[in-house]
Specification:
The chain is α+β, with helices and mostly antiparallel strands. It has ten helices and four strands, in the order ααββααββαααααα. The chain is elongated, with a radius of gyration of 38 Å.
Length: about 250
């Protein structure tokens, strides 16, 4: 071409731009094995200095723009091409220059897409993620439902008796039987807990408003004192034992 025959004399901005209209690259995305297909168009915004090597200038501009696009895209998700396009356009739209005297200024724009194989890979990855999300959500729902279901001792007993490996010829140990009987006796459905449970929750919330251990110990001491005044010494002892656990550990050292 005439450009390269006379590349050391009379190179124009128009000549350079004609060689920078289609710069292709396949640049990695954040997903291993999936890449973007990028077509970059550069625009030289200043006149090249006399004696500039046109072929070298074109190669340098292409190299700079490919590196800029690669840096912008390697952390981008291949699922949202519209956002990727905007990010790449903003990065390439910044004016850059080559080390020449005077400086050769240029900007660029790009069209970002996916080749057929990469589109297929993105579709497969999205489908796999959807299936995993559905499986995770179903597992979470089953776990929560089972936790609620087995939180009631009677239901837990029925579940235990329905196990396919249960040996009906062997009775459970006395310890298991007594523990289960106690739990059944003490169990109260949530909807029938009564006012005393609501009061306990209020007290718990009240204690949580005192962040310092010394403050919590003071409340425990007042509570234990009230219990002793009512003759509830066992309860008072248990409250005082709990208060003792709030005391800071003694400092180490001699």
């Amino acid at each position: 071409m005439a450009l390269f025959k006379s590349r050391r004399s009379g190179i124009s901005r128009k000549d350079l731009n004609s060689e920078l209209t289609h710069i292709e690259a396949r640049l990695a995305s954040k997903h291993e094995g999936i890449a973007f297909h990028v077509v970059i168009t550069a625009t030289v915004n200043s006149d090249p200095p006399d004696g500039m090597d046109a072929a070298q200038a074109i190669a340098d501009i292409r190299d700079v723009l490919r590196h800029v696009a690669a840096d912008a895209l390697r952390v981008r998700d291949a699922f949202d091409l519209a956002t990727v396009q905007d990010v790449c356009a903003a990065e390439l739209g910044r004016e850059r220059s080559l080390a020449a005297v005077p400086r050769l200024l240029f900007t660029a724009k790009a069209d970002v897409g996916l080749l057929a194989d990469d589109r297929a890979a993105v579709s497969a990855l999205l489908e796999a993620q959807r299936k995993q999300t559905i499986a995770d959500e179903l597992r979470r729902q089953r776990t929560e439902a089972l936790a609620v279901h087995l939180s009631q001792p009677a239901t837990l007993l029925a579940h235990w008796l329905e196990e396919k490996d249960s040996d009906w010829t062997k009775a459970p140990t006395v310890t298991v039987t007594e523990e289960l009987a106690q739990r059944l006796a003490e169990h109260r459905p949530v909807e029938h807990l009564g006012a005393e449970y609501a009061l306990v929750d209020v007290v718990r919330q009240f204690l949580s408003t005192f962040p310092e251990p010394s403050q919590k110990m003071m409340i425990h001491t007042i509570l234990a004192g009230g219990m002793r005044a009512l003759g509830r010494h066992d309860h008072a002892d248990r409250v005082e034992a709990l208060a003792g656990s709030l005391e800071p550990a003694p400092a180490g050292g001699p």
